[in-house]
Amino acid sequence: MKKNTNNINPTPVLVSWSSGKDSAWALHKLRQQPDKYDVRGIFTTVTKTFDRVSIHSTPAWVLKQQAEKLCVPLYEIPIPYPCSNAIYEDAMRKFLSEVEVLPPDLTASHFAFGDLFLDDIRAYREEKLKGTGFTPIFPVWGINTSELAQEMISSGMRAIITALNPTKVPADFAGRWFDTELLADLPDGVDPLGENGEFHTCVIDGPMFSSPVQAKPGRIVQRDIESTSKDKDDKIHSSNNTTPTYVYADVVPLETQS
Q: What is the DSSP string of the chain?
């Protein structure tokens, strides 16, 4: 790793960690600039009803292994199921107050997000952090997603499709590996990184890890997504007039029998 040769300390950053490829690559990009950024930890919402990362459905045991192999502290933000936007935002405000009182060598002034091109999501994050003393940054923003998908795969990143919207991609994509074969099979109009909510992933290996998470795809299930309210301004946990059904793939230890 390059040494910081100037007198300016690197910006301390916590990375919003979905457990998937985009947040993993955002962290990777930050670590490629050690003179500029100091990645001090990752944070994510965990739905305590299932003990899984929200939206991506990554099991908590995998999340903890990811943090260990990233060699950074993990900050879990518990939320209920179902979770309204108001409850989500209250949980995030509580987390911000906790970050403020972390020891000087652990706290951060900036939060990094793996968003790629959705302007409303970026604006939402910027608005919610305005006036808090924390600054959002977007390390992978605006990168061509077709090129980035290929770069991720070429780097040795391995990720499992853990959640998908079956109205946008075939249900049998759940449990598949994010690889060149999957990219070739994506229907026309589907973003290669699933940025429009087509699918979500769990990363188990890549250049950001010290060693792979010992895991593989597991059982496939379908589940209706419940909502506590119709939040018109909800950009993260959107509500619909009808209850959507998503397809999920579990992530299990390698030694587990198929």
A: -----SSSPPEEEEEE--SSHHHHHHHHHHHT-TTTEEEEEEEEEEETTTTEETTT--BHHHHHHHHHHHTS-EEEEEE-SS--HHHHHHHHHHHHHHHHTS-TTT--SEEE----S-HHHHHHHHHHHTTTT-EEE-TTTT--HHHHHHHHHHTT-EEEEEEE-TTTS-GGGTT-B-SHHHHHHSPTT--TT-TTSSEEEEEEESTTSSS---EEEEEEEEEE---SS--TT-SSS---SS--EEEEEEEEETTS--
